[in-house]
Structures are given as structure tokens and as C-alpha cells.
Amino acid sequence: MSDNTETRRVAVVIEDDADIRHLLDTVLTQAGFQVITAGNGLDGIQAVRNYEPLVTTLDVNMPGMDGFETARRIRDFSSTYLIMLTALGEEIDALQGLDAGADDYILKPFRPRELRARVEAMLRRPRALAADAPAAPAPVPAPAPVEAPFPAVFTAPVATVPPAAVPEPPAPAPVVTAPPAAAAPPAPAPVAEQDDDGWLEHNGLWVNPGTRVVQQDGVELDLTRSEFDLLAGLMRTTRRVRTKADLVLLLRGESYVTSHFVSDADKRAIEVHMANLRKKLGENPSEPRWIETVRGVGYRLTAADPT
Length: 307
Fold this sequence. Notes:
By secondary structure, this protein is α/β, with parallel strands linked by helices. The N terminus is likely disordered. The protein folds into two domains: 121 residues, Rossmann fold (3-Layer(aba) Sandwich); 151 residues, Orthogonal Bundle (Arc Repressor Mutant, subunit A), CATH 1.10.10. The longest helix has 18 residues. A hairpin with a 4-residue loop joins strand 8 and strand 9. The chain contains nine helices and 13 strands. It is 33% helix and 16% strand. The radius of gyration is 23 Å and the shape is elongated. The strands form three sheets. A five-stranded parallel beta sheet has the order 2-1-3-4-5, with helices on both faces.
């Protein structure tokens, strides 16, 4: 685990314009980051590899390798929070940037305070953990792990039975009745089940928000941060519809009840993330197994498979 990376707050700035590079350096330094700058995509990729930054800002229009290709190469080895900064205001450009792996897309000229606010909003979202994934969850979760979040469930309710009331079996019974097997997914209809180790399950898809691990039929999936957050958000709210605006705020780490502006491009970005997520799940949108589109509104989980 790279706790030292989290605490030292390194940021990499990849920008070919010297004035903007200096401005970004100043803004991020004031936000408490140690800033490393690079003037082109290749140097920026090397800087991300060498310094393992928490946040990376990336210009799109650069000589040589552009920002889209730079983002794709960074995503091959790094989970840094990636913010694209560009003068390209067309919706297709924003979607292309998000599809390349960016977490956020900000138009130039940008406001320094807005950049800082967006960075801090991203930092409130947990980073993906690479090495802490537990073993594949069994269909009936085992009670043994010490990390079980609800130990009170296992305190002995059998203590009230007097010994005389159990003539046959001598003393075997604390923890035999109503163990976690009762907490195993009994297939109640439209709700994603949660076990005592924090796993959410729906139609054979397992999600652990604590370790940020997703497993489908025993195989671990490699999702981006945004894809994971969208999936976990839907798993938590089950059959309740999440609007696109709601999901935009979820990815920003902002409250649903705030009055933050959500643009059409932001909503289209949710569609792109959702399309990529479905592709990784092998989901057929016309016959979905996990995620339903509610036309004109947003998304929700499908009903549970009958068993």
C-alpha cells in the first residue's frame, strides 16, 4: 500500500504553455501539493511513472503526442486522478477525453478556485486499492474474518437457554443457531444483498465498496474509478432510479441536494462511462442483466434473477 503517496500529495502538470504551466504550479502548490511539471506528453508520462502523483493535470492540444493518447498511456499503469484542461469546447472532445480515462474535463480559460474545488471533490472519493482485494467471495460468506463489520450479530443469543433445558447435547450450542448463514443472500427480489464482509451482490455480480473490488462469476474486473463509483452507487440504491444529474454529483463527490450546475456534457459523460461499464460487464443493453436504462431519466439495477 502506498500510504506515503497519499500523505505527500504530489501533483504532475503536463502543459506545453509556459504561462499556464506556471499558473497551475502556483494553484496546486497553494493547495498543498508538491508539483512536478512537464512540457509534453512523453515527459509527462515519465513524470507520472517516477513520482506516482495523486493528481495529474493534462493539456489536450500539445505538440507531438496529444492529451488523449497521453491519458490512455497513463491509464495503462496509473490510477492518478486525471484532469484534462483544454480550449476544445465541443461535447465530442469532452467525451473523448473521458473515454481516454480522464476523471474530469475543464475548459480554458479556467478559474483557479474552480480547479481547486474540483480537485478537492475528487480527493473525497476513495482511490482504488490494488493489492488489498480479498479472495473471491463464496456464495455463502464465511463468518471467520476478523474484519467483519458487525461483530455484535454474533454475540450469543443462546446464553438465555438454561443448561437443564438441553438434556441431550451437553454443551455445544452458542453460535450454532442463526450464524451468518442466515445473512447469506436468500434472494429477496429487487435488492442487492450485502454480507457481513461488505460485499454487495446482484445477479452473480459482487461489489465491495471498502476494497473497491468487483467480481463477476468469480473473475475480478478492471474498472476505472468512475465506472466503479457508478456501479457501487447503483448497487446501494438497488431499484430506485438514479438520474444522470444525480450520478454526475456522485462522481464529483457532491451532495445530491446541492444546487451545483450539471451541464448536458456532464450528463453525456455519464452515458459514456455507463457504456464502458456495460462493455466490461458484457452487458446487452437491450436485455440487461444488471443495469437498466430508464429512458429520459437515468439508470437503476435490474430485478433479481428468480432462483
